[in-house]
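Recap quiz, item 2
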Amino acid sequence: MTQARAVHGIDDSPRGRLLSAAAQLFRDKGYERTTVRDIAAVVGIQSGSIFHHFKTKEEILFAVMEEVIHFNTERLRAAIAAEDRPVERLRALVRAELTAIVGDTSEAMTVLVTEWRCLNADKQREALALRDIYEQLWLDVLADLHKEGRFRADPFIMRRLITGMTGWTHNWFDQSRSLSVEGLADLIVDRVVGEESEEGAA
Amino acid sequence: MTQARAVHGIDDSPRGRLLSAAAQLFRDKGYERTTVRDIAAVVGIQSGSIFHHFKTKEEILFAVMEEVIHFNTERLRAAIAAEDRPVERLRALVRAELTAIVGDTSEAMTVLVTEWRCLNADKQREALALRDIYEQLWLDVLADLHKEGRFRADPFIMRRLITGMTGWTHNWFDQSRSLSVEGLADLIVDRVVGEESEEGAA
DNA sequence: AACACTACCAAGCAAGCGCTTGGTATGTAA
DNA sequence: TTACATACCAAGCGCTTGCTTGGTAGTGTT
């Protein structure tokens, strides 16, 4: 009953508290190694009581993924809407994704990346559909940049390279250290459009 | 008893066949979802017989990781030795790592990346020590490039970005498609040292 | 002939797992 | 007052899991 940190975008209803606890445990121990008894213990209820809120353990995993995709898709939309120029939109996207992965939704985002195959085929397809919407926001911005001639590679490939760079950060990035999310975002943007892009890039 | 594809660098002794089978299953279903009965079934023996070759299931996972790190560390050494100039050494390293991840040791490499936390603390430390040797080969080459002024970022950070890019490929790269390992390697090298590096980069 | 070694089988145990069941306490609304 | 919904407890069922045990067959080696 140590109570897990709330994942941003998940309310603190009984259900929401279960989801935040599950997200943290799934990230730390993995879905399979986490028992429903573990989750119940964190929020301070009996293991059987979990099934009043969710039909199955897998439904908990899916709910975590669903909530975090929805929340961060909206964050991407806001990031794009706040900028006009494609390069700055890209920078905003990278910042948003980094914040999602190492910041306020890190537990759930990590679960989304690492526990994908624990879902059955149907739920995987459902989650993939949500993910496609998220990815399309990236692809549109990258296509604009490509049209402007800011990079040569295929935008699809470029997105995958970016996904790799941002997705891996949960394994090493520490916000308390010298490198900030903004600094890292600039570094990653440079990998896409080159270093000599801006007025005095320094 | 469908017999798993042999992982490059693992012999075909009874033990080796178990390791190749385990690597494939661990990649496809994850360590926890794979039972010793699954592994036994692939090589065509009883589940109990596995424990004649390995003390525990975890020892199988560790052995897979150990073998694949050793094999690919040697591959990195060979790649470096075959080139003189730092940029070409980097290209050789990227090619080697991509080959490891999507080519002849893909099952075991994927397991190395994704099933890390299934090891207990002691084994994790042991595996980390092996990984450090592997990583040092990268860092030396990246430090040379950095000294030459081929990129501005911290070599440690740069290595982590590269790790992300290469490590993620197992989720999307398909050798049978238009993009080759060499083509992808060139793309990634460009992300590090910029596109206008060589004589007619195309 | 005697022994040792490797590679395996057949059977099953103890523990842990997801999930079920039948019930209780509290709140809310007609 | 009755009715229903939400949120939970206490107990435990049935199954799967990693692993153990005691034994056997085949191959060398001395």
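Residues 14, 45-46, 48-49, 52-53 of chain A lie near DNA strand D (CB under 10 Å from a C1').
Chain A touches chain B at residues 28-33, 114, 117-118, 151-153, 157, 160-161, 163-169, 172, 179, 184, 187-188, 190-192, 194-195 (CB under 8 Å).
End of item.
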